[in-house]
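Quick illustration, no need to memorize.
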Amino acid sequence: MTTLIDQSPVPVAEPDAPSSPKLLAYATGSVGMGVWVTVPGLLLLYFLTDVLAVTPWIAGLALLLPKALDVIVHPWFGAVSDRQRRRYGHRRHMMWIGLFLTVALVGMFSVPASLSGLGAAVWVGVFYIFGNLLFASFQVPYLTTPSDLNVSYYQRTRVMTYRMVVLTVGLLGAGVAAPALVRSGERGDYTTMAMLLSIVMLISGVVAIIGIKRLGAWMPETVEGTYHPGFKEGVSVALRDRQFRMLVLSYLFTGTVTHLFMAGVPYYARYVFDNVGLTAAFMGAFLAPAILASPVWLRVSKRIGKQRGLLISQSMFIAGSLLLAVGPMLGLALTILIVATLGVAFAGLQLFAFSMVPDVVRSASADGSKAASYTGVWTATEATGTAIGPYVYSAVLAIGGFAASAAGQDVVQSGSAMTALVIGFTVVPAVLMVIAMTFQRRYTLDATVRH
């Protein structure tokens, strides 16, 4: 087994493990998820402040407040998913509803020409709420699938490797295509971009649902555990687990950092390097190496474990973030290299953290009967980080006196605004990642379940 892994960049299946085509079909759902994560995370704050003339404080709230519902919705959907699995033998009903996420994406970037400022922020916020609810309906049962599978410690990492590689493809495609499609800065281009990417989301979601059905042979036929009928019970079950609690707290700060980074890229490209077109280049440099790095991180996890691999990834992100502070002095080529290193770290951050969740779930319930209760809390944490990251960056911009503008307007930013823009993109993420590492070091389950 070890020899085969060393000779191939693609994870090799064990005889009792799902085949690569089956895992690839399941992982295809991550393409659409990558679109939803990337497009709002990368462009929505910039769309509000530099196209719709929304002030940074209001723009930040327009992104943060809709996500507040996720703290309740995701665990609740987790409990619903556990009940549906017990009743129907699968979790796919909720995922079909989640496919309507495409409507929310288009609506969010189709702001009427008569709206700007506060009115535009409200329009975007309403569709963002709608989209987050639909995304949760798909995401919670989808991400519970690895916990439902009767596979080994290493195979759970393998399942997540397929998912993370495909997710990164989705992130890369959206991260490069979306900025390129809206490079002119006109509102109509944002609508066109959303319509095109929504088609990709729909196709990937359908393929994933079919793929999950084909993985049924590796799932328990019966569920013996007690399901949890409501929000309070599901959250309580998950958060009483100390190992899961440490993992969740660590990922809360990790997710905040990565989404702060994505929100800051357009500003860094436009105001630090004076070329908003570099947004696509930076995102490509960030995500392309992540595709290649995921299989490498899989090998690393087999040799040193997921915990050590995650701590190494976090350390790399801290160092890279701080180096970006002197990006203009280093030049564009070296800055892109640093961003690529951050992409390698990002692959590890995602792979190791997400593959630890099934380990915790199976440690708590051998048949996976509580899986979606854990996943609901996990995805709520991820959604919270998705919101807090851009909000933190918008708050730093506001403190520095950043001036909002409408499409086609050129605004000269003050010295304090430029300083805040750079600090918020470099020093703040490094500090937050240090906090993430502090919590991650308190996670001790990996040493137990690895062998």
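Residues 1-15 have pLDDT under 50 and may be disordered.
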